[in-house]
Design brief:
Elements: H1 2-19, H2 24-44, H3 46-63, H4 67-76, H5 79-103, H6 107-120, H7 142-166, H8 170-185, H9 194-198, H10 204-233, H11 238-262, H12 269-280, H13 285-300
Helix pairs in contact: 2-3, 2-5, 3-5, 3-6, 3-7, 5-6, 7-8, 7-10, 8-10, 8-11, 10-11, 11-13
Length: 304
């Protein structure tokens, strides 16, 4: 039963990879390269690298607890098989990070990751359509959906930032702010239905500018409280706060632009590669943003 389920998931994953235009073998090669990059980053930044790995796996494990998905598995398999499937898929999901932490002798973080994988196998979270309010308006919708899919991660990041303030660790606070901003970037990963765009009477330029404005304001709603406290508590690090804030003001519009370059399909390898280039050498965004902005405008002319 378990082997059949895993084969089915591998088939679905392979089809999704091929839909991006990548061969399956190349996608797994890129995954190996990403793991090597994470290993190298952990050498350079051991503390924040461990935090990043744990937070990334935390969010991925949280997404697998989605209620509709787990209800389907419960109705399809026995209770014993259901828990076995959930534990195995959580273990496979966290295995690369566990190996990286193990190779760096980060035993306590590796043990914590294993514990999270087992605990999340027994948890189910609903979609919370009405029970969890958000500080965001309905337009655009990305932050409402994204907030409800990542509220636990945001809560953990705020708690870590609180610890950073308590122990006077300014780098930890900035790390949490950057992680919150990156979380907001991933809110724009999925495209909306085409008829959402048909309801707009704006030109592509006005449409994108309104998206930029609303996205930046909603992202700042999450990060500005932390940045304000950061400047108050660590006034000598004002320049670092300005650098992070400036990065947010460029990165979020770039993510929105990539979304509408790829529209109506999802963001695939070409757009993801451009985003990865900016992560590796951030000043490159100053050159890539105008280029992709023009491409997004030309693409939106087909729908607006």
């Amino acid at each position: 039963m378990l082997s059949n389920y895993l084969k089915l998931q591998y088939t679905l994953l392979s089809r999704h990879i091929r839909a991006t235009g990548l061969p399956v073998w190349l996608a797994f090669l890129l995954l190996f390269g990403l793991c090597y990059f994470a290993y190298y980053a952990l050498v350079q930044y051991p503390l924040f690298g461990c935090y990043a790995l744990l937070l990334g796996n935390f969010q991925a494990l949280f997404l697998l607890t989605e209620k509709n998905r787990n209800d389907f598995l419960k109705n399809t398999y026995s209770k014993r098989d259901f828990h076995k499937i959930r534990i195995v898929e959580n273990g496979l999901l966290t295995l690369p990070s566990f190996v990286i932490l193990f190779l760096h002798s980060q035993w306590h973080y590796a043990l914590l990751l294993d514990t999270l994988a087992v605990v999340f196998a027994f948890l189910t979270f609903g979609a919370f359509v009405k029970s969890i309010p958000t500080p965001f308006v309905k337009k655009p919708f990305e932050f409402i959906i994204g907030f409800r899919r990542s509220y636990l991660l945001l809560l953990v990041l705020y708690l870590l930032a609180g610890i950073g303030f308590y122990v006077a660790n300014s780098n930890l606070v900035l790390f949490c702010v950057v992680c919150i901003a990156l979380t907001c970037v991933f809110y724009y990963q999925l495209p909306e239905p085409i008829f959402y765009l048909w309801n707009h009477h704006h030109t592509p330029t006005v449409f994108l500018m309104r998206k930029f404005k609303r996205g930046i304001l909603q992202c700042l709603l999450l990060v500005l409280p932390l940045l304000f406290l950061y400047v108050v508590i660590f006034p000598s690090d004002l320049f670092n706060a300005c650098i992070v804030l400036g990065g947010i003001l460029l990165l979020l519009p770039f993510a929105i632009t990539l979304k509408y370059v790829a529209y109506p399909r999802e963001i695939n390898f070409p757009e993801g590669f451009a985003l990865a280039l900016c992560f590796s050498f951030y000043p490159l965004i100053l050159a890539l943003l105008p280029f992709y902005y023009i491409k997004a405008i030309n693409n939106l002319k087909n729908y607006l």
